[in-house]
Amino acid sequence: MTYRLIALDVDGTLLNDEHQLSEQNRNTILEAAKQGAEIVLCTGRGPGNSIPFMEELGLKGYVISHNGAATVDVVTREIVHQFPLDPLALDPYTEYCREHGIHFDVNTAFGLYVDQPQGLKLEVRSMYEAFLMEPLQLPGWLDFEEPVVKFTAFGSMDELDRVYADWSLWTQSVNMLRSGDFFIDLMHKEASKGAALKQLAERRGFKQEEVLAIGNYYNDLSMITFAGKGIAMSNSPEEVKAAADEVTGSNNEDGVHQAILKHVLQG
Question: Do the beta carbons of residue 104 and residue 93 sit within 8 Å?
């Protein structure tokens, strides 16, 4: 089988634990692109801190950002599709976070907003710096000039386990998922990496069986199960591994290189 569209998660998949792109992964991805495969990054990051990896690779095309909530053209920065949230539906979550001291941010396709950007705790500021993000002051819902696409809660694993359990009891008008050990994301009910990847594949004229997807966490499940070949990293939770067609090496072992080499360059 020839895989013509390769969808790659970023953190925990493409990048190692130091948030670096290895030379091995870089060279293998470029060779796959040279042979005609189209590369798309599918990430919980926004386009502002995911497009630079495509530029570093010298690749055009698209990034599926915010866990599928916004798909953006790498060259033009055009938003080719997004799933807007109803901001008013976020009121119970913002109130909960403020009451329980849980940090949260609100995202448009290109903007990230927090309550008090100048007064962030050190661990929160460090997290944004590690992910190359600069928070802005959160305005009122009516003052947003662009659609809100994602709400993210950030905290320790224990804190977010409790938050997830509490929020799971509510009537859900949003798609809630764990996008990492320290993050819970809320998006439009129909937004997911899998839904965005399906739409992009159709837009680009690729069949489902021509799509290869590689990821490592719960937010990758929808694209792993959509793809003709869905691959989990060995650093994935067991549920993600079980849903995948196979498991490759970890993000610190160039698992992306291993999978592309096997299924694209030698396939």
Answer: yes
